[in-house]
Design goal:
Number of strands: 10
CATH superfamily: P-loop containing nucleotide triphosphate hydrolases
Strand order of the largest sheet: 6-7-8-3-9-10
Order of helices and strands: EEEHEEHEHHHEHEHEEHH
CATH topology: Rossmann fold
Structural class: alpha/beta
Number of domains: 1
Low-confidence stretches: 1-5, 257-263
Helix content: 25-40%
CATH class: Alpha Beta
Number of helices: 9
Radius of gyration: 19 Å
Distance between the termini: 25 Å
Shape: globular
Largest sheet: 6 strands, mixed
Length: 263
Amino acid sequence: MTTTSTATAAITTTGLRKSYGDLVVLDGIDLTVDAGTVFALLGPNGAGKTTLVRILSTLLTADAGSASVAGFDVAGQAPDVRESISLTGQFAAVDEILTGRENLLLIARLRRVPDPRRTADDLLERFALTDAAARRVATYSGGMRRRLDIAMSLIGNPPVVFLDEPTTGLDPQARIEVWNSITALAAAGTTVLLTTQYLDEAEHLADRIAILHQGRIIADGTLAELQALLPPAHIEYVEKQPTLEEVFLAIVGDHGTDVKERS
């Protein structure tokens, strides 16, 4: 179902495999992510989402297959890949002792950007954190910490951003705050690969969605394409299209039960 062109792709993988002993985590992953889009990788715990992100971000070596990010080969050009990406994990990597501005200034100086103060101020405004800039991060809400974490990941303007389950543990309002930040990233031309277990998150944010189950991509397409995999909507008084949750459960149900988490 994948229709994106490798000529415009920010991320590609071909036959990517990874195992730990007898446990196969990734079993031949073929993936293409168009530049400047939000691509959601959807799957239950243990599906291999985090393992795939770790390979693409050069933190883990694949057993077989190939992958490229921002035009660079992940295995052969790892330093170039690292300069082109940013990775935000499941927990905010912020220093609670420092203020929001100090966190941004620290990363800006480490990355040797030309004007750290201006960079910090621009990101504080972009992520609606200016009013809290002088407060210690220990006083921030969960949503504010996550927004600051994403802001820190954008210092240096990486063209590709990996967000590995960025709203895990957040309350509904904080999740919406993060969603707005992700939407703004894509609008600015950043490619976002988002892993999530939340079906409504993928439905709300993603241009394309891939469902990863037991180490394999079992469906890949736009929301409309995935909805079309189910029978036409039953019409009573109004037409009701299947939700992404219904599509996901129907597809996964045909491919066996979940495996133990290992990613």
